[in-house]
Amino acid sequence: MKWAITNQKTAEPVHLKTQGTILLEQQVEHMLVAVEHELRRSPAGVDELGLIKRLQKPPWRLIGAVQFHDPVQLYPVHFLLFHVLYRLWDMLAETGESVCISPLSIRIEQPVTGTTNGLPGTRDHLRDFYLDLSQYELPGDSIQQMMNDFWAGYRHTIPDDTDTLHAARALGFDSVPDTFSTVKQAFRRRVMQAHPDRGGDTKSIQLLNEAFATLKTHFSRTLERI
């Protein structure tokens, strides 16, 4: 498994931590779109391991190999997935939807009349825990290595200007956008449009995913030059 996590207690420059945080946030944004798409494909719900396995396969390939029996290896994947799920819950609340979050059943659902989206008691503590990315506890260089290994998709070369422009055009831009936030908004919109219920297919989503991975790498490289 390509986690590249070490136990070295070396001092890390502030700019590396900042870059690592931004890289992790980019990965979260990519997973937000992928998870929402997969949950809408399965309105009856899917369990946690099933969702992880979907994110490991085409068209996403956002998670590398995981030894599911090893808690040390499973924890980072579990934590990031649940962080994404709670972020998705907050995002969908704006449209009146909510997310049922449980290791055995994860699904998007409409709120029942007379109830609220708030989480009572211990569930509030869980939400706070998973939304706190400091609980992920990975140094910036480890995050960078994960991006290089497999999390940025399955591209293992640095995109040149032509690759980057083609990726931007695949997401509907005439040129490469100035900000990553603009890219992620377009990516989510295009993936929603490519949903099978709207006449889309897996191949279309794979092409969009490749384009987003290319632009994600482009903006990551831009950060390195700052």
UniProtKB/TrEMBL annotation:
UniProt-listed InterPro entries: DnaJ-related_N, DnaJ_domain, J_dom_sf
Entry superkingdom: Bacteria
Keyword terms, alphabetized: Chaperone
The keyword Cell cycle is assigned to this record: no
Domain DnaJ-related protein N-terminal: 30-154
CDD domains referenced in this protein's UniProt entry, alphabetically: DnaJ (cd06257)
Pfam families per the UniProt record, alphabetical: DNAJ_related
The keyword Methyltransferase belongs to this UniProt entry's keyword annotation: no
UniProt protein name: Molecular chaperone DnaJ
Species per Swiss-Prot/TrEMBL record: Marinobacter adhaerens
